[in-house]
Amino acid sequence: MSDAIAAMALGSARGRAWRRFRRHPLAIAGAAVLALLTLAALCAPLVEAGLGIDANQVNLLARFAPPSVEAWLGRDELGRDVFVRLLYGGQVSLLVGVVTALVAASIGTCIGLFAGFRGGIADAILMRFTDSIIALPLLPLLIVLAALDLTKLGVPDAIAQSEQISLYRIVIIVALAGWTTSARLVRGAALTLRERDFVAAARAQGASSARIMFVHILPNLMSPIVVATTLSAGKIILMESVLSFLGLGIQPPTSSWGNMLTNAQQMIQSNPELALYPGALIFLTVIAFNFIGDGLQDALDPKA
Description:
The protein is mainly α and 304 residues long. The protein has a single domain, classed as MetI-like fold (Orthogonal Bundle). Helix content is 71%, strand content 0%. The protein contains 14 helices and no strands. The protein has helices at 2-22, 25-42, 44-51, 82-118, 120-135, 138-146, 157-160, 165-177, 180-193, 197-204, 209-217, 222-245, 257-264, 273-299.
């Protein structure tokens, strides 16, 4: 009976959250835009096959060709199809944003949960470490980490020279620098929750500290964690774009919206559309994530 009541209460809570979320037209619009961009990016191989082209094929005879039936958004400085490259760039940029946000949220949640639950010296040490990371200038730190020679760090040459290593490097670097917001948020909530009656009851029943943290406290922190992760995804896409724009992010021939901006900066006067397309997609994606985060913040607010 208690399980049935709990399931009904959970379903009712989800229904209320969904109704509150639907009252945010900007959040609904952001979710629709993000879903459309994700679907379009996933369909990149199908579009490429349907048009009968190769997104990385160089055709110098078609440099800066205008939009046509064969190339819907024209061609870039190397004669490559801009539309298909935007779709593939969306795969990379969205993947980096979502995966890195999840990794950073996981690291921050573990650190913040342990610090908030344990308190005392552990809390002081972890939070001072978090403060030291926050105090570092983020962009110069990311530039230095992205410019490190992996072979000198002991990474095998086969891995360091692979085409996908820049993608993995960006995910790791940004995640290691972006977990602090989640850590402080989770720590503050854990400090409050550890004093609640249900935690005292769990202790009285002999539950271990790990069980109390991950079974009793963590589920009550999911709402702020989800909101923080959603909001950070847009910031991470901007970070990836900045690093790629500086030539330290995703490396060609893998395309991302950031390195497409890099390639277009020298043609900004003669062919501004080459910078307009990826810039507009970055703008729409970041705004969509922010609108979704605002909607989730109100929808998951227990005081609403």
